[in-house]
Amino acid sequence: MNTYQTLLDIRKKRGAGYLVLIDPDKKPMNQLIALARTCEEQGVDGLLIGGSLLFSTEFDRFVGEVKKAVSIPVILFPGSGRQVSGHADAIFFMTLISGRNPHYLIGEQVHTAPVVRSLKLEAIPTGYMLVESGKTTAAEFMSDSKPIPRHKPEIAVAHAMAGELLGLRLLYLEAGSGADQSVPESMIKAVTTSVGIPVIVGGGIREPEAARQKVLSGASFVVTGTVMEDQDNHARLGDFAAAIHAG
Ligand code: 1GP
User: Fold this and answer.
1) Strand-pair category, 17-22 with 90-96
2) Using CA atoms, how far apart are residues 152 and 7, in angstroms rounded to an integer?
3) Residue 244 has pLDDT above 90, yes or no
4) String of b and e for 35-64 (b: at least 16 CB within 10 Å)?
5) Fold category of 3-246 in CATH
């Protein structure tokens, strides 16, 4: 079964899936590998690896080590074409459809596609939609693109529909890592009732209850990143997983 199918399966069996984003720059490698293991033990459904920037020069080795440590899917969530590794199960092959910066709509993908092909990586075509979240996030700054106004769900819906009509297989509603405010539930509802493809929601989610609300609004997958960079929060991984699966 390919990774996309595995994700659909998780959604079917559990109602929604919990994905944890691991940024290779945020901690020493051994600590992040330990986090990956704990994620699997605590019921996390998959790991995303990536970040807006990349300082580490050991990305490929890092992905290999994570892959060796867990049996849940390891999916690349690249901020740029430098974040590609053949050790991963798949890559979210993303296009920043909320923006009008051609570099992140198609430019970076043109540089990356030949590498993805050579590595025989499973590419999951994903529409990435940045949503206004209170302050300028790294994703917004680095992509030089305007986020969708948070109180304009109809704008998000039109983008989501366009993404689906263009053949994308996933949509990622993103407030940005460390966002002040997560994607509003009204926007998640509007988008998920307008398209048939699974919708991932991430950015600024710090509590299990907030994660559950995203699922109740229609999210198929919820992502947390920053909250698990604090070792003290690792004990809450199971609470997040339970809240998301119960939602
Ligand atoms: C960022 O959506 C992810 O791309 C996770 O965001 O770090 O705020 O949890 P946080």
Assistant:
1) unpaired
2) 29
3) yes
4) bbebbbebbbbbbbbbbbebebeebeebbb
5) TIM Barrel (3.20.20)
Supply the pTM of this predicted model: 0.98
* Ligand 1 site, residue 84, Cβ cutoff 6 A: no
The domain spans of the chain are 3-246
| DSSP-derived secondary structure letter, 149 | P
Write out the two tokens for 35. 């986090």
**Residue 179 near ligand 1, beta carbon < 6 Å:** yes
CA–centroid distance, residue 50 to ligand 1 (Å): 10
Residue 211 has pLDDT above 90, yes or no: yes
Q: Which residue has 């070792």 as its token pair?
A: 231
pLDDT tens-place string over residues 101-143: 999 999 999 999 999 999 999 999 999 999 999 999 999 999 9
